[in-house]
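Posting this for the archive.
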Amino acid sequence: MIPATIVPGHRVASGLNGNPKFPGGTIRMQQPHFAARGLDLGSFYPGTLNVSLAPWQFQPGTPRHTFRALKWHPTEPAEDFSFFEVVVHRAEGAPARGWIYFPHPETKQAHFQRADVLELLLPWMEGLAYGARIHLEAPSGQMSFLPPP
């Protein structure tokens, strides 16, 4: 398991930043496109939980799902997305299964993440807050975690 810290994100995925270009957030806009390709995200909170692995780094491996050239927005260019399985462990409560949501940086137009930050799609979990420590598990081969140098 890899330690991670919950950090603030851009609030675009959830729509909490109020950007009228993404009404309801990017995840709500993308969900039907992912579902049409076989990935149902309906049981997950429609926003991402951003976590910093610092000083650890991550290296994507073979994702469970990859969607190329997904045209999910009427005016934005198509993007590539990959999804990696993840289990989140926290101090209190049962572990939660979800996805590492990975918009490919080379096709993403804006709202880039720092190199140590992953975005997670999970069921709603009470009690999570910025600065909280959690632990992540991902299947070997899907995502590698690199220790600090």
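Residues 26-36 form the longest helix (11 residues). Residues 21 and 73 are 9 Å apart (CA to CA).
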